[in-house]
Amino acid sequence: HRACETKSLETEIEMIYIEQKGGACLKLILQHKEELNEVELEIRYPEMTKRISKLVQCIKQYDLEIEGYQDDKMYQIPLDQVYYIAVVDRKTFVYLDQTVYESRKTIQAIETMLEETTIIRIGKSVLLNISMIKSAKPYPNHRIMVELVNGEQLLVSRKYIDSLKERIRSEYGK
């Protein structure tokens, strides 16, 4: 997607047009209002589509956090910063771009908690945030190697390939 046109009507309002497939445009209006106490989002559409539903899901997911621990300190980790979650030596870890936190929850509990998000199981002990996938390629024994946006690589077990493909198609229309 690329911007069709960007207009700054005045210092308080910015309108951005994003070209969609088929030539249609999505209009994004950013408006600074000092009198507001909270951020407001309003989505207007001619008909509900998968892409609009995905956008709503991403907005809802934006506020989700996972509890993680480092040096006996507890942190609230925004879900949109999580790359993947893995079990190593019977301990659950939450991996971000450059940081790793330990979780006190089981991977099954985290998977259940994040069921309606971009987190998906790709192995017996690994959950992946599919929004962090940069690329994917076939790997021996009917598996897939995914490269994340930070350069890390994870192996998708063949048992989870179909659900990963289906999730990517439903989430991103690919």
List the helices and strands and how they pair.
Elements: E1 3-10, E2 13-19, E3 25-31, H1 50-61, E4 65-70, E5 73-78, E6 84-88, E7 91-95, E8 100-103, H2 107-113, E9 119-123, E10 126-129, E11 133-139, E12 143-148, E13 153-156, H3 158-172
Antiparallel strand pairs: 1-2, 2-3, 4-5, 6-7, 6-10, 7-8, 9-10, 11-12, 12-13
Task: Tell me what you see in this structure.
It is a single chain. With about 170 residues, the chain is an alpha+beta fold. Helices cover about 20% and strands about 45% of the residues. It contains 3 helices and 13 strands, in the order E-E-E-H-E-E-E-E-E-H-E-E-E-E-E-H. The chain has helices at about 50-60, 105-115, 160-170; strands at about 5-10, 15-20, 25-30, 65-70, 75-80, 85-90, 90-95, 100-105, 120-125, 125-130, 135-140, 145-150, 155. Strands 8-7-6-10-9 form a 5-stranded antiparallel sheet. A hairpin with a 5-residue loop joins strand 2 (about 15-20) and strand 3. It is globular and about 50 Å long. The model is unreliable at about 1-10 (pLDDT under 50).
Let me know the largest β-sheet.
5 strands, antiparallel
Strand content: 35-45%
Bulk shape = globular
Straight-line N-to-C gap:
14 Å
The helix count comes to: 3
What number is the mean pLDDT? 86
- Order of the strands making up the biggest sheet: 8-7-6-10-9
- The structural class is alpha+beta
Tell me how many strands there are. Answer: 13
Radius of gyration, whole Å: 19 Å
Low-confidence blocks of residues: 1-11
Helical content class: 10-25%
Which sequence of SSEs, written as H and E, runs from N to C?
Answer: EEEHEEEEEHEEEEEH
